[in-house]
Specification:
The protein is about 45% helix and about 10% strand. With about 280 residues, the protein is an alpha/beta fold. The chain has a single domain, classed as Rossmann fold (3-Layer(aba) Sandwich), CATH 3.40.50.300. It has a seven-stranded mixed sheet, sandwiched between helices. The relative contact order is 0.16. Bound molecules: adenosine-5'-triphosphate and magnesium ion. Adenosine-5'-triphosphate binds next to helix 1 and helix 10.
């Protein structure tokens, strides 16, 4: 199962959402891969990998190698070990971004390499139960490659009126791409991020989206400084503050997209003998 997190508007929470859902997925026991397709490398950094470090510049274990068509892609020998790095967390692997992506883009485009990522993901899918793909705030070659290579898209929405216009542009672009390149492409849902229940505008905007039959997911993500702290510590929320409200909202969101019963995540902790999980489950309900 592959999920792309995409919105061409910047700063709506793509990387935060991709990494936190991936971390929860791994904690839930799914073998999970986070693919960072954004040259900013924010998701890579969040999961503890600095794409600008001297070491990262020297190695091939990154997403640029997928596009360079090195090694096994033609011979069917693609294995994650060639590209992927481990994270500090069980079940969670990272296909880091690379500073090379920008330089390579034009060449890849002119050589029609738009299906390259799809082919690689099909192979990597043999090794991972869940693949989360973070994208840049652009409808660029890499975002298109991701949308061509995925089953579903999650669209973060940050509750301002510019975001609403961006959402319509995004859906138009996606529909065109679906028609031309990936008839299976499906919008899994719009994720409401940084929702402020006290203000009237966010609720109004969300009601408008629902009235227009946008597939808005029911679990909203609030706004909290914990998110920035979590980036700073390079620790996804589920590892930094398991019982925080924001973490619980992400867990509920995860349970919703996975069609799991509410409380499944903490129930799993209880089954493992974690005493605090009972309180967390009660707080989540
Ligand atoms: N729920 C939240 N609560 C508080 N801050 C948040 C939340 N979600 C995102 N942020 C903050 O908003 C900023 C942008 O988030 P993030 O980097 O995840 O967005 P993005 O869509 O990936 O950005 P870009 O388009 O640049 O890739 C970050 O500083 C992040 O800490
Ligand atoms: Mg980002």
């Amino acid at each position: 199962m592959k999920r792309v997190i995409f919105n061409q508007k910047g700063g709506v929470g793509k990387s935060s959402i991709a990494c936190n859902l991936a971390a929860i997925s791994a904690e839930m026991g799914y073998s999970t891969l986070l693919v960072d397709l954004d040259v900013q490398g924010n998701s890579s950094m969040y999961l503890g990998y600095d794409i600008h470090s001297d070491e990262a510049r020297k190695v091939d274990t990154n997403v640029a190698s997928i596009f360079r068509q090195k090694r096994g892609l033609l011979t069917n020998k693609l294995t994650p070990q060639d590209y992927v790095v481990d994270t500090a967390y069980d079940n969670l692997a990272l296909l880091p971004s690379s500073i090379e992506l920008e330089r390579m883009e034009r060449d890849l485009e002119s050589r029609y390499k738009i299906y390259q990522l799809r082919k690689a993901l099909e192979k990597l899918e043999q090794y991972y139960d869940r693949i989360y793909i973070d994208t840049a705030p652009n409808f660029n070659f890499y975002s298109k490659s991701a949308l061509i290579g995925t089953d579903t898209v999650l669209i973060p929405f940050d509750c301002d009126s510019f975001s609403k216009q961006a959402l319509y542009n995004l859906i138009d672009n996606m529909m065109e791409l679906k028609e031309d390149h990936n008839e299976n492409l499906r919008i899994e849902g719009v994720i409401i991020n940084q929702f402020n229940a006290q203000a009237s505008l966010p609720a109004k905007l969300v009601a408008e989206l629902r009235a227009e039959e946008m597939p808005v997911l029911d679990c909203y993500i609030g706004s909290s400084v914990k998110m920035k702290e979590s980036h700073y510590q390079q620790k996804p929320l589920v590892h930094m503050a398991r019982s925080h409200k924001l973490t619980q909202q992400f867990i509920s969101l995860f349970e919703q997209i996975e069609n799991l019963a509410p409380g499944s995540f903490f129930q799993q902790d209880i089954d493992r003998g974690d005493a605090e999980a009972k309180t967390e489950l009660a707080a989540a309900e």
